[in-house]
Batch of 3 targets.
Target 1
Amino acid sequence: MNKTKQALATMISSFEWFSSESAAVYYTFLNDLPDDVTAQAIKELIKTSDKAPSIAMIRRKAEALMDTAKGVKKVNSSERWTEYLKAVKHRKGWGIQPHFKDRAMEIAAESVPADEIGRATNDKLPILRSQFIKAYEEAAKNQSEEESNMKAIRSVKQTQKLTGGFYGALP
């Protein structure tokens, strides 16, 4: 038995409503993640939850564990605002908008033009910050959903290849 199945078996004994059938459904939606990481995510969530964690919670925890192992640091929207202000400060003149590799950052920067920050009074700056953060969070959410959708589409296409197209058709 692999580690994910063992961790799901622990959930069966830990949570009253969680059954073998539930474990089978969970496994179906978790088996694309690395076994060790998924098992660890389940164990961590069992330690801190009064209720059985959802599939989504387990996936988020597993992805967070993998990011931490890879040294990936999640940057929050306030940190992005600070980064944008530094870029505006160091730009080479008026009318020049800083550009960023991160698509969400680029969209947020377009929502609050650099020149507008340069002309802003102290009472206007919190409004611009709020506008930037809202745009950044929305763009980051959309970017994350697009990435998730692309993974799902690749998974369906792979399943179609393996099953000779009997799984369902994509446009």
Target 2
Amino acid sequence: MPLWNSFPGIYKSPVFGKARIMKTVTWMSHSPEETFALGCKLGAVLKEGTVLFLTGELGSGKTAFVQGLARGLGVPETYYVTSPTYTLVNEYPGRLTLYHMDLYRIADESEIFDLGIEEMIESGGTVVVEWPERLPAGFVEPALRLHIEVLPDDSRNFILTISDVDLDFQI
């Protein structure tokens, strides 16, 4: 059973300078299957042009989450969803195209633009960015920020910050 903790907050966007209402939702996952299911539920409600910053240590469940997100976005099961650690970007067709980026191996900001990140964001697809701290400051304002924390009992604590108030996401 997921653990809920929701509260609205105010966030001032460094890019646009407008105050935005934010909501933070936390829940627990006790297995890769629960993590996958959570991703699937979120993917089913995402809107065109959503940018999600995804953080968590190695082995925290980021790939399992993105695999579920892909299914929720309608990516066919014939596509094997993997971590883009070495490819830097993986693209999957679905209701919305999913672009999954891993910026860990990026050494210079200019490389990020060589990947076509601006085009991906403007395409209307869903862009998931791992290692978002490698992006230039203020480059893009994500609708979602998800941090996955590994707990001592090997369960996962998911902290989802939603800055897009039009997103209707309930578990």
Target 3
Amino acid sequence: MCCVGYLQVEDANDAPVLADKTCYMAEDTEENSDICTFSASDQDSTANDWGKHEYSLVSAIYHGDVDEDVTSYFDVPFANNLGTLTLIEDISLGVDVYKFAVGKTIDVEVVVTDRGGLNDTAIISVVITETNRPPKCNAGQVFFVEENSLTGTFVGTVNATDTNGDAFDAE
């Protein structure tokens, strides 16, 4: 007597893996701007539900002079298994003055969850970078030149400042 049996092997859900990442954000970034994108790796195929991921924001801590919770300034929308860190609040405090200081970081904790309920977390470190602004001529400068002056005749010196403190040449 002989028997025939069947063995069915089902795939087990594997947890997604989300790596830590460093991104850069200009000090004058406008609200509703995308800062960076990220995606988890997963041994499961996107053809089954376990390989499909959702991303969510856990927290965002600004490391300025003192640590500050700035979670409300960010969002993590996702589509097609790709997460995006988005600035959703205005960070301008006035003309050329911004909430986040150049060289400081914001650590954003993000969680990825697959459709099987397994998850992983990562830290997206956002480094604040300086925006290079053009020099500005000081207002109220008036120069006069005689009619029929030769090309190259010295007229005056323009006073200007660079808001970044960079050296510059004017011609």
